[in-house]
Amino acid sequence: MPELPEVETIRRDLTPLAGRTITDVEVLWPGAIKAPALREFGERVRGQRITGVERRGKHLILCLASGEELIFHLRLTGRLVLTPAEQEPGRHTRAVFFLDEGEALHFADVRKFGTIHLVKAGERQAVSSLAGLAPEPLSEEFTLDWFRSALARRRGPIKGALLDQAVVAGMGNIYADEALFRAGLRPDRPVPELASAEVERLWEAIRAVLAEGIRLRGTSVRDYVDGRGEPGGFQKVLSVYGRKGQPCRRCGAPLQRMRVAGRGTTFCPHCQR
Prior knowledge:
alpha+beta
């Protein structure tokens, strides 16, 4: 699933769309459009000028001149790629937004879990996956004190807490594993057992790993490509995620895998006691 670094990379790639106009939209799989009804969706999107490109958690948002917002949630396998307008849609393309100046924005999704909402001004919270999100983890609002208070309400394993979007917005399986490794914490440690210094170490690791993920333009291990259709680079420096059985880059011990909070989780039994 594209996580915060991947969606932020796409946002930066698509920022030049500000000032461009959506001249037409072709919906190839109606199930991708969650609101409003399909006919109304097309009528409200056509002719709209894009005024900005934002991200909130794992959502990418095109702000429109009307005040409305076009909200994409890429889920597991969604892609947003800017192409020449004449490029034929791929097998898994679900919607095409044609732009002025001879370009188009293709929304592709192999698994069909991704969603597109068009909401009116001020109604962003009507999208359920946007409601109740934690502060952006790289923002000034995501303070150590805020993180401590969010964890204080949790009783399960720390890996599960990190995947909760009300605790860390935009965090997913890849960066949770990487942050826990950097902080030296076993993913199945119960949250109440964490010492104050461990929570601080984890808070710092979360911010560091997400920032590095953005710098390297995301992680491409399966479906992810950026807004230009190119793979990211963070997969080249992964410490634990997807490396079961390989030697730990820090101590050399074989990495192990277990399930935590219903998710496959890779860790070092020596560095993460």
